[in-house]
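[job 4417] fold queue: 2 targets
>>> target A
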Amino acid sequence: SRVTFVNFTVTPSSLQSQCMNALLKSERPDVDRKREDQLKLQGECKVKMRELEEQLLHALSNVEGSILEDVKVIATLEKIKKESSEIQEKLGQTDAIMQEINETSALYDTAGE
């Protein structure tokens, strides 16, 4: 059998954050759900950006001849540029929504202290 040791450290800020999340879930489930959705979307966007970076590196490492003359690389670069712009736009929107959520959470901030 195996034994795994896990070192959990509880800090005042992490405890306050957990209390705030529980309070929001109880008092404002709509805001809590929106926060969860936005965090999930941000994570998905970061994963997609990493995938695009890997595609770019792969395309550049497999260049045959000049980069400027390789049509496959140029097409890949254009595709990556378009997709990364869309992702950056989504991230900008999620940042604005998260700011609204944080403002709503601040109304309950004294309860978490």
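>>> target B
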Amino acid sequence: AVLRRDPADAVASEANIFSPELLLDVEISPVDESKPTTTVQVRTIQGKKIRIKINQDATVYQLAAMVMRDSGVGTAFSLSAGFPPVDVLDGSLSVKDAGLVGASITQK
């Protein structure tokens, strides 16, 4: 049997890296209290815990940009959530659709 790797797998495995260049143009919108919000807890690369309030319809890219801003990390990182931890792969998903409402997230 020939094992083939789906090219999309390679893209997905690299898509979990949120780089400063990727997040540079991501607009961080103020929280709109008229829409559903959530607070996520993030353990940063440095081991610091930060809490971020964000709209549930904001994208994972927007969340990652806030994590980068609030953690002060200027290098590429990944985010994982859940137990067992799973890397967050699709930055275009909403926070809600990515299953991150009320989540504990680890920045790696």
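[job 4417] complete. Note on B: The first helix runs from residue 7 to 15.
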